[in-house]
């Protein structure tokens, strides 16, 4: 019986050792520590977020306040424009001739009918004398023909001459009369040419730069003429307004004349006050503006043709309206609002309806009553219920500052102006109109308040 070979066991291989218990406990401890740290951080942040509103409310914020008032407010609109003369004349000679003398000074004022240039009158006097001599000759011929007609009429009544001869004499008399009339017209023309030899001013105005000198030959067809005259008093201003202002302007203009003020390009110096005379009958489709024309008395020549000005027109005066300083108006997600200061020195958010803004004042239709204090400075640090330290700020006037009169021209210095005194400074520009003048420097609090107005604030 054969023996079975014995099975040889395989050589032992590497055995996997289980991880030690100490390593597993270390990882568990690290995970627990991380979770604990995260929980502590989250808990601390939640407590800080819960305590921050209370801390913000506990902090006292210094603010500037001003009371709402009830007053009469003038409503103005503004636009840009240019000064233009009501009449500009290029003076030309009406007859051809040589300049004998010049009777005006460049830049001087001239009156209607005042002599400007004298042409050599001798050729025109000779022409007048010739015309008068021809008239005298033809007048003598007419008298002789009339005497012959009287004789022929008597002879014809006695049947001594033919009727045809009498008719011929009557035609001769008529012809002589027409010749005399023609000669008289020539005399009048020669006398008129002699008058045209003296070139006079057709308007009251200012003489410009002379184009010709003494000794030059001038004709009626000269392109440059002799001098350009410009009417300065009165004078006009053409300015434009947005087409959205047209209904209000037309309604106010239908009730009576509207006052228009002309200011310098900086909006600081009052140049003149006039009346609106014309509203153009066409809106400019390209710019969506309407053109208007105002007439100004200009005795002191403060307004000059082609001068760039800013026109302010007064439409009406709102009587007894509630106004607040413009910096008090804020804008947020819920609309326009103001911060009101309560008697306990905390602030409340009040939504308001603004009718219009006129420079430093905003007319409030709803939301604020006279006497309530509104915050005008420091709004960016406030929220509803915040504790404040109110500091009174004087309410702005309807027309802050003092107007300045433009200096008189060199030729007019030393003479009083049309009103005999200096006018107050213009109010600063309204945000609702285009082309508003630059505002004069303002106090620091007012500037900060206006910056806060333009900033979008969130209400919580």
Report on the structure:
This protein has 460 residues and is of the alpha+beta class. 28% of the residues lie in helices and 32% in strands. It folds into 4 domains: 62-72 and 321-408 and 419-454, conserved putative lor/sdh protein from methanococcus maripaludis s2 fold, CATH 2.40.420.20; 81-85 and 231-317, Efflux pump adaptor protein, beta barrel domain (Elongation Factor Tu (Ef-tu), domain 3), CATH 2.40.30; 89-116 and 202-207 and 223-230, no CATH class; 121-196, Helix Hairpins. It has helices at 21-58, 122-157, 163-196, 246-255, 444-454; strands at 60-67, 69-84, 88-91, 97-102, 109-110, 115-119, 198-200, 205-207, 217-218, 227-230, 235-242, 259-263, 269-284, 289-296, 308-325, 330-332, 335-341, 347-351, 353-358, 361-366, 373-377, 387-392, 404-405. Helix 2 runs antiparallel to helix 3. Residues 1-8 and 400-460 have low confidence and may be disordered.
